[in-house]
Q: What sequence folds into this?
């Protein structure tokens, strides 16, 4: 007797973490370029518009055409809780193909 199981292939998620100035953005870009991926931002300040100085936020040219999510999504006077971030990040991760 032979059983055939249904295989579900999921897109892998690579988390890149480390201290400020360690090269996380460059590594994320290299991984995304190599595997056709996208970047979902997890920096608590890069979600805000106008916070370009002091956050090491990449310019559009530095993003090298790699889609980035959850960057510049809020004005500085808007509150964004950890729960709201978790919901937004999980939504973005599901949308990335």
A:
């Amino acid at each position: 007797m032979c059983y055939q199981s249904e295989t579900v292939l999921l897109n892998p998620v690579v988390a890149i973490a480390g201290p400020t100035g360690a090269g996380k953005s460059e590594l994320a870009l290299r991984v995304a370029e190599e595997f056709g991926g996208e970047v979902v931002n997890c920096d608590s300040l890069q979600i805000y518009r106008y916070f370009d100085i002091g956050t090491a936020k990449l310019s559009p040219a530095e993003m090298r055409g790699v889609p980035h999510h959850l960057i510049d999504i809020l004005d500085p006077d808007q509150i964004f809780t950890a729960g709201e971030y978790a919901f937004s990040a999980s939504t973005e991760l599901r949308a990335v193909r």
The chain has two helices and two strands. The longest strand covers residues 39-40. Helices lie at 24-35, 82-95.
